[in-house]
Structure formats: structure tokens, C-alpha cells
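A further point concerns the way the authors explain their paired sequence and structure data. For illustration, here is how one protein appears when written out as sequence plus C-alpha cells:
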Amino acid sequence: MLLLALGTLGLAATACAGGGGPGQDGEGGSAGGAASGTVRVAHVPSTLFAPLYLAQAKGYFKEQGIDVRLQKVKAGQDAVPLAAYGNVEAVVAGFSAGLFNGVSEGLKVKVAASMGASTGEDPSPTALEVSKRLADSGKVDDPADLRGRKVAVAGGPGAAGGYQLDVILRKSGLRLKDVKVVNVPIPDMRTALADGGVDAALPPAPFTTAMEEAGVAEALAVPPKGTVATGLILGSDFAGMDTSAKFLAALRKGAADLQGKGRTSPKNVGILAEATGQEAGVLRKTPPYQWSPRLTVDERQLSKQQDAYREAGLLKGEPVAIEDMTR
């Protein structure tokens, strides 16, 4: 039943995609696909996926003889079935509990790369923000003080943010199940904190900075260095094609451009601003993620992520063998 539902979701999402020319947002047509050198990629615009946008803008995909067409979707984790059913060749998204459940039930996808990783530095690309009211009262000055309290995570506990929250809480002796995770869209988290609807939230920058400057919240903790919860997911059929190897080669060239000072270079920031719809000035102030130059799949992080979801009661059936998801 799950696979039938996922297939229906994939078809519906494709039908809703807008039109566009080569290299632009649009469905790119259902005929041909990878066999004709066209690679359709579902994405939610985010700096997490910077290698994708740099490879597109700098012509690295064209160098490989492939035509990449980007399709915007509302939630990357919900678009994974598109790749499984051949409606797109690839998805950049968070690794959700739904991904593990889907693979466990036979969803034909492969995790081919890890994307943006946390730096562990403060300021951080993502931070656990606590209500200023609670911080000033002294009731919450450590993540351990959030036991039993409401924490906003976009997509809920089974989303990639749920795993990021879990690794933050573990440093203080808590687990995901020890807090009440509330599904709140990132743009609405500031209001939820201000109104007392939640006690804490896990937004990315620049939303973190906006909350703090408005006096609504303050940073309580950040994910440990190397925390990865997003990446590249390919349909299993596409993963076995020569075109997928060329696609990955171009992505890795984009990742190489993001090493060292490349993470904040004016040219790269300008490309990311156009790709994500954010202002370049805002991105220059936004703490950047870090990327493996080879975009190597972090199997250890995937294993920890599966364990966290299972401990929180979000997974069904037997554990998925991580090597089966990635090789």
C-alpha cells in the first residue's frame, strides 16, 4: 500500500511542475530522460545544495554532455518517489524517516552523495533557538531543559531536521522522544516562538539571525561538526547508467569550487543568490555549510540517522542495510 501511495504522489507532483526551457525549472518532458542525456532534478532551492547550482551555472553539466533541468518542489523528502518511479532522475533532499521506510518496503532509490554538513561553529548554518522569554527567565539555558517542551521542526520529527535536533539533544542526555516536536514551516517559526506556541525551534540561517535581532529568540546550541542530513538521491535505474557518473562528476566539480574561500567567494554567492531567490547581501552574512570535495556519502551519519528515527518510533519493519541504500 505504501508503494502505491508513493507512486501516486510522484505522478501528482510531476503533473504540478511548471514548464521551462533547458536548464530551467520545468518538468523537461517525460520522454527521453537520462537515455537522451537529460537529467531532471527535483529540488527545494537551498544553499544546502550549492554544488548543484554551481555546476549548472558554470557549465559543468554541459561539459559532461548532459542537459540538467531543475524542477522546484515544495518538500524534497516528499519528492523522493519521483526518482523511484522515473518521473525525475534525481532528487536533492533531506534524508527522512520516510526514505528509510520506503527503502525497507522496496522503494527503488540510491543515496549517491551527501550535501551540506554542519560546521559545528557559532554562528552556524542551523541552530536550536530558544524563546527569549524562557532564556531570560532562566528556565532554559541548556538543551536538557527542553525535556517535555515543544520544539518546532519543519516537517516534524521524521524530517531531516528531526535528526539534527536529536544529535543536539544527545549532547545533553536527551533524545528526540524526550521533547514534543511540532511541525512548523520555517518562515512561521519566529511567530510561533513569539506567541508562545513553541518553546524552541530549529531554523536555518538567515532565519536564525532574524529571530535573534528581533529579540524573539537566542541560540541555545548547534549541530555537531559534520552532521549531515541531506544529499542526492537517484532512481535505481538511473544510478546504473553512464549518465549518472557524468552527472556526479559535474557535481563534484561544483563541490570543489566550494572549498576554503570558495564557500564565500562573491561569484559563488551571486550564483547561489540567483538559484535560491535570496539576496546576495543576506547570503554574505549567512554562515555557510561545508561540503566534502567528493560529495562522499557519509554512511556513518546515515546509520546514526536510522537509529535515531527507530528509537523515536518512526520506522517500521527491519532496519535497512545502509550499504544497500548506497551501493
User: Anything to note?
Assistant: The chain has a mean pLDDT of 90.
